Amino acid sequence: MANGIIASYKSWLKYRQTCNELNRLTNRELADLGIARGDITNVARRSVGY
Q1: Where in this chain does the record put each YjiS-like domain (predicted)?
Q2: Is the four-CA dihedral 7, 8, 9, 14 of positive or negative sign?
Q3: What pTM was estimated for this model as a whole?
Q4: How far apart are the first and last CA of the chain?
Q5: Which residues, other chains included, contact 37 with Cβ-Cβ below 8 Å and sequence gap of 6+?
Q6: Domain segments of the chain: what residues?
Q7: HEC readout, the chain
Q8: What is the pLDDT of residues 6-32, one digit of tens each?
Q9: Which end of the chain, N or C, is surrounded by fewer C-beta atoms within 10 Å?
């Protein structure tokens, strides 16, 4: 059970880190990556397998 909690927490940390890093980019930089600002949460979720 503890392993599941730890794994969930690590996934959440990776999700937050991804969101934070993408939110620091300008709209132009996001566009260069093919990401719209409104898609950041979806991209972050996919990065952790949600």
Answers
A1: 5-40
A2: positive
A3: 0.86
A4: 20
A5: 27, 30
A6: 2-47
A7: CHHHHHHHHHHHHHHHHHHHHHHHCCHHHHHHHCCCHHHHHHHHHHHCCC
A8: 999 999 999 999 999 999 999 999 999
A9: N
